[in-house]
Amino acid sequence: MRGAVVTEPGRVAIKEVPIPKPAAGEVRVRLEGCGVCASNLGPWFGPDWMQFPTEPGDLGHEGWGVVDEVGPDVEGLRPGDRVAALFYRSYAEYDVGPASSVVPLPPAFAGQPFPGEPLGCAMNVFHRSGIEPGQTVAIVGIGFLGALLTQLATAAGARVIAISRRAFALEVAREMGASETMATGDPAAVIGRISEITGGTLCDRVVEATGLARPLELSAELTRERGRLVIAGYHQDGPRRVNMQLWNWRGLDVINAHERNPANYVQGMRAAVEAVAEGRLDPAPLLTHAYPLERLDAALNATRDRPHGFLKAMVVM
After folding, report:
1. What are the start-end ranges of the E strands in the chain?
2. pLDDT at position 296 over 90
3. Mind listing the pLDDT tens digit for each residue in 167-182?
């Protein structure tokens, strides 16, 4: 099979390697594609802790495809089942992993890309946010995750205010149901406008989905007294300084909406399948860029640079 190997910072090679064999309790998936995650960018830049070359397929963890072999002691899955898989070497034509990390996809999803892990993340963030009908919810950062959360919060009956630096992203947010959109260029203007919209009370829930310091600061400013600040952005560039006086004074509930237990990720993936089937979630228009495996480097660079029209890249086999 072909597998992508990161040979050094910013460089990918495609290697021919043996097809892996599933062990007891594992399944092998013939991959149709794999989403490209912003968390790949740290290793892609080549930090001190990163070792090169990577193993074939490394970094890819948003795969979907068809089960083509099951190992001993696997029940409930068989060759031919189409699935989303939370495996970790899915920048390749095949990947293997625990059967417990696989979520079956219904026949109605045939032919549709389904990067399960980020969709599961969106469901888990939404669950941790505690969004209810009638609330005012600000989503700061409209990338793939922010756009998904806009859909979910709108479907839940909340009034969504989308805030992003990119005009294209704000257009997407409106299509996903946001009632108000604002550019982040002038934080004071954003705070003033949201205060005006809410009669001075600010937002019941604010979801920070950028992973950057200044939007995190803005998110706290937008959260009302006894409101909930939800940190969904992946902060990977060092420590943060936060205004604890503000957090204390307003009595904010601050939620780190990241999971580490694989079972929680898989639970979120199952919830995503249900949400898509019910029409509460539609990832299709948000999967904006597709690349062949040989152009994984271009997919990663687009994820870094976010050209106009970009929300989410995937590699297709």
Report:
1. 2-8, 11-16, 26-35, 63-70, 82-85, 94-98, 102-104, 136-140, 159-164, 180-183, 203-208, 223-231, 253-256, 289-292, 313-316
2. yes
3. 999 999 999 999 999 9
Instruction: Tell me if 202 sits within 8 A of 219, measured CB to CB.
Output: no
Which stretches within 130-261 are classed as H helix?
A: 144-155, 167-175, 187-197, 213-222, 244-250
pLDDT tens digits along 64-84: 999 999 999 999 999 999 999
Cα 166 to Cα 111, 116, 149, 163, 192, distances in angstroms = 30, 26, 17, 9, 20
How far the first Cα of the chain sits from its last, in Å, is 11
- Cα separation, 302 vs 317, in Å, equals 18
CB-based contacts of 16, cutoff 8 Å, min separation 6 = 1, 2
Residue with structure tokens 């920048």? 91
Output the six-digit token pair for 232. Answer: 């969904």
**Encoded tokens for 131:** 């969004």
Round to whole Å and give the CA distance between 282 and 272. Answer: 10
Residue 147 dihedral angles phi and psi, to the nearest 5°: -70, -40
Q: How far apart are CA 291 and CA 299, in angstroms?
A: 6
DSSP 8-state class, residue 165:
S
Q: Is the pLDDT of residue 48 over 90?
A: no
Scored b (16 or more CB within 10 A) or e, 259-279 reads: beeeeebbbbbebbbebbeee
**In this structure, what DSSP letter does residue 18 have?**
P
Size of the chain, expressed as the number of residues it contains: 317
8 A C-beta contact, residue 108 and residue 277: yes
